[in-house]
Amino acid sequence: MTSPSPSPASLTSPAPPGRIVSLLASGTELVVALGLGDRLVGRSHECDFPAWVKKLPSVSRPTFDITGSSLAIDQRVRERLHAGQPLYHVDEDALAALAPDILITQTHCEVCAVTPADLAHGTTSRLQRQQVVALRTGSLQGILDGFAEVAGVLGAASAGQTLVADVRRRMDELSARTAALPRPSVVCLEWIDPVFAMGNWGPELVALAGGADLLGTAGVHSTTTPWQAVRAADPEVLIVAPCGFGLTRAQEEMPLFIVREGWTDLRAVRTGRVFVADGNLYFNRSGPLLFETPTLIAEMLHPAVFPPRHQGTAWVRWPNAT
After folding, report:
1. Which pTM was predicted?
2. Cβ neighbours of residue 128 under 8 Å, at least 6 residues apart?
3. Nearest to residue 311, comparing CAs of 270, 282, 271, 285?
4. CB atoms within 10 A of CB 15
5. pLDDT digits over 270-305, tens only?
6. Closest CA to 172 of 213, 144, 137
7. What are the backbone angles phi and psi of residue 65, rounded to the nearest 5°?
8. CA–CA gap between residue 23 and residue 215 (Å, rounded)
9. How far apart are CA 110 and CA 53, in angstroms?
10. How many other β-carbons are positioned within 10 Å of the β-carbon of residue 180?
C-alpha cells in the first residue's frame, strides 16, 4: 500500500514556529495576547507582563546602572551612547541554548529596549531562526501594522486580525465618547530630569482621550524640552509618565519637579490637575496594553464621564499639586 500524497497546502505552508524568544517587552505582551504564550521560551530582562513571564529565563541585561535618579540614569545613557557603547548585553550562549525558531526585537529606540545591534555578532550564525522586528515606528497605526505582521510570521494571522479589529473598535468607541467633550490642554512628560515631552504615539493617545497635546509631536521621537517651554505652555493638565518607571518609582521622582522655578505658578498645579502614571506598562511600550492608555487619560481629563477605574493602580493625582 502506498502512502497518500501530501496535500498541496502541506507542501506550501510551513509549520508554525514553535519556540519564541522575545527581547522586547511589548513583543512578549503581544505573543501572549495572540494566545501563543506557551511557545515563549525566553525573554528580555524588561519583559514583566503578564507577571508569569518573569519565570522564563532572561537572556539580556542593561550595561549601565539603572538605579538612582532620572538625571543620573540620563547621564549614564548619554555617556555610553557618546562612546558608541551598547546599552544592553545579550547572553549569546543562553540565547543559543534556547534554540528559538523566532526572535523578536525592535528597531525604534536604542535606549528603550534591545535592538538587533545589541546582539553579539556571532548570534545570527549560531541560531536557526527568523528574526521579527516587532516595532519600527512611532505611531498607533504603525503599531497595529506591526501586530498583524508579527502575528502572520508566528502563524497566527487570524488571531492578529481579531486583535487589531478589537483595538480599532475600542478606539473608535472611545473617540466617539470624547468627541463632544471639552478638550483641555495637556502636557505629557516621559522623563523628569531632563524634561522630555512625550512624542511618538503620546499625542495620539491624548487626542483619543479628548485632550489637546501642547508640546509633543505625533510620530516624532520624544526629545528634551526646556522647562521654560512647559511653563510657557501652562497646560490645564500635566501628566508625568517616565519611561521605564512604574507608578511608585515615578512618584518618588516628583520632588525633583516641585523645586523647579515656576512650579507653583502652573495652572495644572494650581487647580490640582497634575497626574503621575505608570509609564512602564501604559505609556512607553508598543504592546496591546498601550491601547488601554487612552481610557486612563480620559479618566484624568474627564472624571465626570469616565469613572476612575485605574486610579491608584495605573495613575494617581499628585498629592502636592494643590
Report:
1. 0.84
2. 99, 101
3. 282
4. 8
5. 999 999 999 999 999 899 999 999 999 999 999 999
6. 144
7. -70, 120
8. 31
9. 23
10. 7
